[in-house]
């Protein structure tokens, strides 16, 4: 994921989390410094959480094969039959 999009998402999420504190600050029920500190805490928490989520998504993206790309046929041996596998003619009908 793009780091700027992760930061944008964390900024928007922190603003949503901080909204009740902002409303209380505008009404005069909460001091400005306390409201600012709450916003910084919300920003830090969402930044860490969404950053971890972005790392997890990127790890799964790089680990999974992309659709449409076939592995080279000469790089690996074809799968072999096991002893306990039955031939299609040996199966009961």
SSE layout and pairing:
Layout: H1 3-27, H2 32-63
Helix pairs in contact: 1-2
Query: Which of globular, elongated, flat, extended, rod-shaped describes the shape?
Result: rod-shaped
Mean pLDDT: 85
- Total DSSP helices: 2
Give the helices and strands as they follow along the chain. Answer: HH
Number of strands: 0
Please give the largest β-sheet.
Answer: none
Uncertain residue segments: none
What is the helix content?
55-70%
Terminal residue distance: 52 Å
Structural class: mainly alpha
Radius of gyration computed on alpha carbons = 27 Å
Instruction: Please report which band the strand proportion falls in: under 5%, 5-15%, 15-25%, 25-35%, 35-45% or over 45%.
Output: under 5%
Task: Describe, in plain words, how this protein is organized in 3D.
With 93 residues, the protein is mainly alpha-helical. The protein has a domain of 61 residues. It has 2 helices and no strands. The protein starts with a helix and ends in a 30-residue tail after the last helix. The relative contact order is 0.11.
Give a quick set of tags describing it.
mainly alpha; single chain; 2 helices
Short recap of the structure:
The protein is mainly α and 93 residues long.
